[in-house]
User: Fold these one by one.
Assistant:
Number 1:
Amino acid sequence: MAEKYPQSQTDDQKFDTKTTEKPRCSPNLLVAAIDFGTAYSGYAYSSRVDFVNDPLNIKAHKWSQSLKSHKTPTCALFNKDKKLVAFGYEAEKQFTELTDDDKHQDYYYFQRFKMNLFTESEDRRKKKGLTIKSMIRDIKGDEMPAIDVFSAAIKYMKDCLFKELKEENDENAEEAESIRWVLTVPAIWDDDAKQFMRKAAEKVFIHKHCI
């Protein structure tokens, strides 16, 4: 008798059946999706068990209890050492306070930075395309490597997910390579921009076979 719910396969298992190398992302015990929006961003996830019991049982992180929001502003605040100090609502709050105290000059503040990938890619279409050396400007015109800004934002949401899983005593919190990651990208992005997002994720230890 066939199983009612046959075990799903990863892409590595489906298309790399001839190799003896153990897949780096198998089995997929949980799927996590990070959505970079132009104005707002967030993430959602669902475990295999939850999917089997109810395919619509998808959990989305609440960034603000008061607003009951599942999205947070696509804003990132970095210090003078180019280390992320805040993201989303907290980044907005801290940068406003720094500006009020006239202490913001040594900080980098990026907002709605996702579309910079599309703009940069269009500008370079006739050159060599978007690369890990591409730079983006913050609201003051100061530059940082684009790969550092995006990877820091991905890491922030990744860390938030792991913290949430640990609070739920979810075994997936300790099994990073059992998670299948989904990064949403606009249809208008070219292959350079899409590959850039993959590289940004890999930079913060999300294995390429898990994306």
Number 2:
Amino acid sequence: INAEYMGEHIAAVREVLMPIAREFRPDLVIVSAGFDAAVGDPLGNMNISPAGFAEMLSMLLTLADGQVVLALEGGYNLKSIALSSEACLRTLMGEKYDGEYYPSDPEVAMKCAAVIERVKRAHAAHWPVLGSSVQATSPASTSSTPTIPV
């Protein structure tokens, strides 16, 4: 998976949170849907696009037989909140959200891939599912394109 396309936040959810959550098998998922991480938010400054929020929510909807609750709780840019909320509502309704993903900085993507691998190694003793997907070599040593292993 190319972190440059999907974003570091989506990679972290896919590579760390989702394997643990699938193993845990929750009956209900409650999301504190603060959009201060959205593109344009003056405080979060994390630049997650509405499509990025929709993608992360799509992953969460595979848990708990789709029993997912979103509680809007933050964000400081009304346009970002509106666009991100719309993307999530469309996703909850089963619609495919076709918004744009914003490219990541390749250097940041490489650093993120390395951090994700360290997190997986650190938590593999408690969550063995993470150990099965830990990459033997760092992405930087195998490719010039930042990638996150699946």
Number 3:
Amino acid sequence: FMDDPGAETQQQQQVQQQMEHAAAAAAAELASDLPSGGASAAALAAELGAAAMVECMETGEMPWGGACPIRRPSQESLTRQMRAALRSIWARAQDLGRAKFTGLALARMLAGLASPAVPASTWKGSSEWGRLAATDFRLMAEVGEQVVGEYWEQHQEAQAQAGQLRQRGAAA
């Protein structure tokens, strides 16, 4: 399965479609929560599509004038925020059996978007739920994958070191 390049490409396309769908949902949800200009953000997402939303975020302006309601922070800033969020929720995620808590799941939680991996009934009470709702979701998903991957690498290294120490202690 993983040796088949076609299957890998298909999987990448499915992930891309999921991210685009989640980004559109986040934009629509955000637009409904905005006190003014919400209809403009919803219209932009519906009429002009993802490319226009990206342009809006990059320029900071709507095509018809006014500020873009979606923020696109620097990758460094977003990485710091997502690392802090992951540290604050990791124990809870593991308690819930989310041993494979993914970057996409982290991004969905920070955007306040429920899914089977991130049910609103479980996470809505968290201070991290929806904290970055007005942030570019695609960027959050990309950074989330990086942050969660780094965490798992560090976690596995720490477990390996602890196992070595236990073996040394048992041998002594």
